[in-house]
Amino acid sequence: MINRLCIIGVGLIGGSLALALKKYSACQYIIGCGRSIENLHNAIELGVIDDYHTDPAVAVQGCDVVLLAIPVGGMRTVMAAIKPALTENMVITDAGSTKGSIIEGAREVFGDLPGGLIPGHPVAGNENSGVIAATADLYRGCRVILTPHENSHEDALNTVTAMWRATGAQVNYMDAELHDHILASTSHLPHMLAFSLVRELVNSPHHDNIFRYAAGGLRDFTRIAESDPVMWRDICLSNKDAILAAIDRYRDELERLQRAICESDADTMHNMFAEAHDARARFRCLLDIQEQDCQ
Amino acid sequence: MINRLCIIGVGLIGGSLALALKKYSACQYIIGCGRSIENLHNAIELGVIDDYHTDPAVAVQGCDVVLLAIPVGGMRTVMAAIKPALTENMVITDAGSTKGSIIEGAREVFGDLPGGLIPGHPVAGNENSGVIAATADLYRGCRVILTPHENSHEDALNTVTAMWRATGAQVNYMDAELHDHILASTSHLPHMLAFSLVRELVNSPHHDNIFRYAAGGLRDFTRIAESDPVMWRDICLSNKDAILAAIDRYRDELERLQRAICESDADTMHNMFAEAHDARARFRCLLDIQEQDCQ
Question: N or C: which end of chain B has fewer CB within 10 A?
Fold first, then answer.
């Protein structure tokens, strides 16, 4: 049970955690922090937080856990702002989509990595944003990856693990670098592809008709292109090398397929589609099993 | 009201049309035709068709409408098979995903394009296949594009239009070439991207972990990679030029984004993501309006 939690950035991610912890009575008091007073007012009215401060250094005072749920690009500034108010037993975690840059930023700001710092990433969320989209069940059945470092205290790790488990999430531990490579493929690359596809469609010679005659597949396929541009800019800046490598590998695959189409090479095309088809079917089974495990 | 309909290829597409026409009493008798007797037996047991023949030339006899619902690559062979049994008033339509190749094939097989030939494309379907996946509501609210040619009879066009409208679909008319260009962008390109993404993930250095830590976005984004490999091989062979052009344009977009990431050009990235975000939001509104119109 957390006594007092400070959530810096009360949007979809931070707000959903707050709602889940309240629903399952896993936290006594939640204080929000952010730049928009209107948003913080909304969060109180929606029952997401109990109170708020706009100054991070004030907001974190007396809290046993602090969650940074802001775009990755803002993490250093906020860490610097809360630094004077940090106490030895305060646990700090985050919900950023990249982890290497958080650790790097913390090293710069704090000099040495604090024992209470447990970087984390709830692999959840959707194309919506803002506290208005927050729900208590966002994390149910999802995975949360924690990337503790060489200084991390076991107690802090246990606290953050218990916090996420209370929301119904599965918690896994991983090296920050491995996290960033895996997420580059499973999340960052697909987003880059979706953003690029929507741009291609808008710029295509028949763009007036494109969206009128779009099938359901396109709707699913481009949904993630409605994700927050600021968040994705920050992710690209902070996980640049892994994302570029994933795009390179992807472009090689696409070129190989394009060559087969260009040469009307029916067998190669069929093999490529069949391999992808079979791999996707195995992936679906895996997801179905995971969902059953979580229920 | 159609008296006797012959469906050649009783899978998801042909089977769903049959179920819809039966549900809305828009056809008296449906005869199926295909190579797999087991599948045709299933279709009878599922109440999809009333009877079947495995020989297309026999199956079409006495029918007022014939639907070819097979992969595009098989169309010429089937058109040649039914040619001797064609009568002047027989209406022939198809459900192929490309239209230029159907018209080209018909010209080769029949010498001159028959007045009863109305090429068509229901912009529907999902990653499932086979008559077992057929549902009466597959076409509800979907668009069906018909691409009549210079010889098409008005009566035949009216018959095919009424048939699809009976399923709850919206019917539009379009030039075959324009159809193929639009679908290259809205359907064929996204499928190529999804097939390539799944292949990239399978071949990536961390593929063991990739699918374990996949978020919901990836599930939606790769769903269409489970589509039928034979169907997609045929689509690529028959709409090669338009698909290659769409992939070229897409690769340019992706390269532009990759360059911005490589140069850590935050403003360009943000602008690209924001443009895609806004276009996708407009697209969602358009789809929502269309869905309301159809209800």
Answer: C
Residue ranges of E strands in chain A = 2-8, 27-33, 51-53, 65-68, 91-94, 117-118, 120-123, 143-146, 170-173
Taking an 8 Å cut-off on Cβ atoms, the answer to whether B185 and A199 are in contact is no
Query: How close, in Å, is residue A171 to chain B by CA atoms?
Result: 11
Structure token digits, residue A239: 């996980």
Report how far residue B285's alpha carbon sits from residue B295's, in angstroms, rounded to the nearest whole number: 16
Q: Cβ separation of A240 and B232 shorter than 8 Å?
A: no
Tokens standing for residue B187:
């359907």
Mean pLDDT (chain B) is 93
Domain B179-263: CATH superfamily, name plus number: 6-phosphogluconate dehydrogenase C-terminal like domain (1.10.3660.10)
pLDDT tens digits, B126-171: 767 789 999 999 999 889 999 999 999 999 999 999 999 999 999 9
A193 contacts B254? CB cut-off 8 A: yes
Cα dihedral across residues A258, A260, A266, A272: positive or negative: negative
Q: Going by C-beta distance under 8 Å and a sequence separation of 6 or more, which residues neighbour residue A154?
A: none
Domain parsing of chain A, residue ranges: 2-174, 179-263
The pTM of the whole model exceeds 0.95: no
Distance, in angstroms, between A219 CA and closest chain B CA?
8
Residue from the list B219, B247, B272 with its beta carbon closest to the beta carbon of A287: B219
Domain range A2-174, CATH architecture:
3-Layer(aba) Sandwich (3.40)
CA distance A290 to A279: 17
Task: Report the alpha-carbon distance of residue A277 to residue B241 in Å, rounded.
Answer: 24
Report the complex ipTM: 0.86
Helix/strand/coil percent split, chain B, to 5: 60, 15, 30
**Which band of pLDDT confidence, cut at 50, 70 and 90, is reported for residue B295?**
very low
A142 Cα to chain B: minimum distance (Å):
8
Contacts of B274 in chain A (CB under 8 A): 229
- Write out residues in chain A with pLDDT < 50, as ranges: 294-295
Question: Can you give the pLDDT at residue B207?
Answer: 77
DSSP string, B78-140: HHHHHGGG--TT-EEEE--S-SHHHHHHHHHHHSS--TTEE-EEEE---S--SGGG--TTTTT
Inter-chain touch A200–B281, beta carbons under 8 Å: no
Chain A residues whose beta carbon lies within 8 Å of the beta carbon of residue B126: 216-217
